[in-house]
Amino acid sequence: MTAQENTLPALKKKKLVKQCALVFSFLVFILAIVILFPQIYYFNDKIKYKNFQVFYDQKIPNEIFPILDNVEQLIQKSECYDPDLNFKIFLRSDANKYNLLPFQFPEVGSGHAIPGIKNVFLYKSNCSTDTTYNHLGHARSLSSVLAHELTHVMVESKWFFKAKMAYFDKNSLTPFGALWKEEGYAEYIAGNLPIKMEEGIKLLEGTSKKHYSPNFEYFKYWLAVRHLILKKQMTFEEILSSDLQLATVLEDALQERTQKADGY
Ligand SMILES: [Zn+2]
Predict the structure, then answer these.
(1) Number of domains in the chain
(2) Which pTM was predicted?
């Protein structure tokens, strides 16, 4: 047997491995494009209005424009509002659609902004009635949920590192698995919470029956951040940078309310 005959299969194997690696890299690249730019393939209608690009699985009704005007008004209240920031919003009227790929529509909850990519997906929405729904069918106004998710995009754009470091801070990450400062701030900007003030206070004081727990969690975050902004005159950047405990802030907020009611 010659030396040449010995090396031929090895060469063939090397070529095959190289071809497989190329095909694999190409498939990963295609998958990444599809995940990062879902707008290029599966939405039936899209509009571009002000800083918003909206994609929907149906024809987008004209009612979307006042909804987006309202969202703009809400997010302009934020100290991290940036008039040059553009938002990509993906909506669907049918929760059974578009469930094939990762990093797209949420399986539970009402929506999310994908970190890094900044695409915003809501679970199920009706653009004609300004309504959005979570996986349990609980309704909330589309404009407030959009303002909530876009606040995440704005916070990430301005303070990416600071905001993400909160995941390593035991006082910022709640046992529920949420960052109370950022979620509370997103709710503060969004408004129109599912739990209203009086009802939430009763829940906190234990004088009212149990509510859908994610809504109660977010009410607590909202109340704490609202207290820090309105009563303690803190900016969100200061809140983000300060060592604060949710329980202590809530205690303080409740105490101040009681004192006010008692006429102090
Ligand atoms: Zn959120």
Answers:
(1) 3
(2) 0.88
